[in-house]
Amino acid sequence: MFSSPSPEQIHAATVASDDGAGVLYLYGNYGGDIFNFDIAADLASTEGIRTTTVLGRDDILSAPPEKADTRRGVAGLFFAYKTAGAAAEKGCDLDKVTEIAQRTCDATRTMGVGLSPTILPAAGEPTFTLDEGEMEIGIGIHGEPGQFRGPLETADQITDRFLTELEKELDLSQGRQLAVLVNGLGSTPLEELYVIYRRVHQQLTERRAVVRNLFIGEYATSLEMAGASLSICQLDDKLAELMDEPARSPFFQHGSVQLTEGVRTTASHTAATTEDGVDEGIRTVEEPSRLRDIVLAVTAGLPGYSEELRELDAALGDGDLGITVGEGAKAQNAAVAALPDNAAPAEIFKALGTAFSSANPSTYAALLGGGMIAASTAFADDRVGANAFAAAAHTMAEKIMARGGAQVGDKTVVDVIDAIANYLEQTTSSDAKAVAAGAVQVATGVVETQTGQTSQRGRAAWVGERSVGRKDPGSVAFLRLLEEIARVI
What we know:
The chain has helices at 7-17, 31-46, 77-89, 94-106, 155-166, 190-207, 237-244, 291-301, 306-316, 321-337, 345-359, 363-375, 386-404, 413-426, 432-451, 473-488; strands at residues 23-28, 51-56, 108-116, 134-137, 148-151, 177-184, 210-217, 226-234, 247-248, 253-254.
């Protein structure tokens, strides 16, 4: 509940959905979802499936206009599903469908009120508390805090609050075409939602705006939370046309849709599996290298550093790095062990990245996992050597920097990976033992240099100058990886 699907689940849905024209990822602006969808996009890319992403950011009270890119996605995302779906059904290409979805999100704003909390089944406790007769304006669909808490007001007063705020960012004046959604959060009776719309209709009619499309009901719920939200989409002619298009799904029907027989054909990406669960689509090589055996040995040794990494991370972050690396390494070991002995190097790296990112829902796992998946492209020709690993390290560092925002010199794991990439690029040795030992030496130097620096990114950056004199936990984790590689070789 209230957590992102895993990269494997998203990837599986992507493969099943693709018909050769690509896939749009359309979801709310939440960190866990972003990282996991990005990793799934990396996986899809290695299979030739193009993906694009549009984020819903319609909750106006979750951040001010100048920080609109950090706002949460809530019920208003429904409008983008409607218009993007209609555009896709009409045969628009991926770029046009993406543009329609983005245009709809840009034209949509939402505001909500919570009247009672929700209880996560796993936790058994309310996500927040409200006294009898209290309300919270601006509360999120996962129970995130709102902007104002006070005595319960009438439906008209609450609706007027909504419209006053929404009108600051939307044109609700004469002649404007609007789509309106009055959404229940889970346990608000439908008739109460109609009471809210009654006031919306009165106010918009006074402004002489036109409600072209109206949707009332439960569209974005929060288990048993009592409350409601009001979403308004400011329509242009194209969006109005797409909003009018009929649609039919198990949970939503709009207009009349002609049912068709048969199953839509998807592109042939889905790989079959053998009886023991091994993916028959795994690419293999005639002469396998030692890579798989080395990986199995290294990932078996990495959990031994969990306590050290936990202590380092507890001093600068939230202390979960030991679990992330330990559990991630175990998952990697199992994933690679399931591969055939002659799996291609790229397949091994994809398995490593997918397993690491999915074993623990942390930023470090998502960034490193995504980096490993991206690095798999460096082994497209199946060659394993210093040049290939140099290219893999460069690709990994670039992916982490692009996704996480860190740069070389910010005192993060990027510093170590970049240094290793440069070292491997410049080395002339063909002795694997010597190269591995040299990589450990380079990484050790970087970690020691970092100790005198201030952390600039991630949780460690929050402690400011107190990070000086302490080793960067993520960099140490990568150093331990290199030490294990050198030991095994």
